[in-house]
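Notes to self after the Tuesday call (sharing in case useful).
The group wants a holo model before anyone commits to mutagenesis around the pocket. I volunteered. Ligand is phenylalanine. Logging inputs and output together so the record is complete.
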Amino acid sequence: MENKINEIRTLALAEIEEATDLKTLEVVKNKYLSRNSEFNNLKKGMKDLTPEQRPVIGALLNKVSAELEKLVNDKNEIFYKKELDERLLKEKIDVTLDGDFVPTGHIHPLTQTVNEIVEIFNHLGFSLIEPQYSPEVEVEKYNFDLLNFPAEHPAKDMQDTFYCEGASNVILRSQTSNSQVRQMLNSKPPIKVISPGRVYRNESVSARKNNLFHQIEGLYVDKNVTMAQLKGVLNEFVRLYFGSSRPTRFRSSYFPFTEPSVEIDVQCIMCQGKGCSVCSGTGWLEILGAGMVDPNVLKGVNIDADVYSGFAFGMGVERLTMLKYAIDDIRLFFNNDTRFLKQF
Ligand code: PHE
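Result:
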């Protein structure tokens, strides 16, 4: 028995010595130290020994198995470290290399313009309207009647406005001015809001017109609001949006809900006022409509026109974006062609 143990020990020592990596070491370990190993079988044979032999052989078996185990574990640790070092070296990451390009989306040019204009008016004391006062699906009353449109006004024609089939007075709003009415019906002056949103008109689509576009409406109602304030606010807006060197002019105009009404032009950004095809030779480009809120409108929303006055203005977001970036076709905003959109 003693000889057998020493024989196995010699073989095991040689094989441990020969093992060159974790894998071969694992094989040796299983062969000599697992439960089914020859060595372990010898332990089971102890019961057949004489009482005198038993402690001697037992001690020898323990000594040898402890010796082999220590050798295997020590080598295991060395191989593990070595293989880890090799792997770390091989799988090294160069953090200075360029990464893969991951394209990200960005904000649509119209939204950029809306954000910019809203920010300018925030700066001038106007707050963003609450969305429930500015619905896109509207009834005629708020889009036309309470804005002092006469019953037979041509804008109410189905050729100009989208009507809902089956509910004759339900429309897609043709202007953001519906939000003026709803704001005034639901709050008391002073009112100073800005209201951006989509509007719809039943027109044939061309480079200049789309049947969906965006407007921004502004409304200021308080005691002693004057035309001079309207001029001051809108001139300041033009200065901040187009830059300080861009002259403006106020032309008298007509809207049913404002009296007096004006249209505001900026000097043509293409020809600097000399006259070109973009400004039809006039040297001026119309950018917005405005006026003093008509007393009839104030009456309709229960605001005392003898105490309060106000001004309102409305502008087209597509038009302002086209003028700023010299874009010649409104349809570009709606085609979702990334070659166009990426430029903003
Ligand atoms: N709603 C008018 C339009 O669509 C613009 C406007 C708004 C004019 C407010 C005056 C005051 O043309």
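Two things stood out.
The CA atoms of residues 125 and 192 lie 7 Å apart.
The longest strand covers residues 212-223.
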